[in-house]
Design goal:
alpha+beta, single chain, six-stranded mixed β-sheet, Alpha-Beta Plaits, elongated, about 40% strand
Length: about 140
């Protein structure tokens, strides 16, 4: 089990839940590097940091942070109704993603638990982009040989 294999599983699970209408961001870590035109119904996944868990023997157990980010585009006319509608949709999408990730643990026997769900404050990206990021902690175990 490695961080890269968890990222691959996480990306696959997010893509499956979101469906064909959504596609992957060109830049997941630096949202500003994406063009405004490429932010509509986009997602990204990434890894942040981790640390070993004390008290385990014969296996390395790690709590590692990952994130999922969704972006949408909006054009406000006379109020922020479009922005609020996009944000509401992103929260609904995260409900579906989180439920699947927590229940299935990314279909990986080495993942012990998915925990520490943390929603960041929504942010605007460029002129018409809106992003919402959720951080999760995944506890996984690498058996030693």
């Amino acid at each position: 089990m490695s961080v890269s294999s968890i990222l691959t599983s996480l990306e696959a699970q997010v893509a499956t839940v979101l469906g064909a209408d959504w596609s992957e961001l060109d830049y997941s870590y630096n949202l500003e590097a994406n063009s405004n035109k490429s932010l509509e119904k986009k997602y990204g996944v990434g890894a942040s940091s981790g640390s070993s868990v004390d008290g385990t023997t014969k296996a390395l157990t790690v709590d590692f942070g990952f994130f999922i980010v969704l972006t949408r585009c909006f054009v406000n006319r006379s109020d922020d109704a479009n922005e609020r509608a996009m944000l509401s949709d992103m929260y609904d999408q995260f409900d579906n993603i989180n439920e699947t990730i927590f229940q299935k643990k990314l279909n990986n026997a080495n993942i012990l638990v998915v925990s520490s769900l943390d929603y960041e404050e929504p942010t605007t990206v460029g002129d018409q982009g809106l992003s919402l990021k959720v951080n999760v902690t995944i506890k996984y175990r690498n058996p030693t040989t």
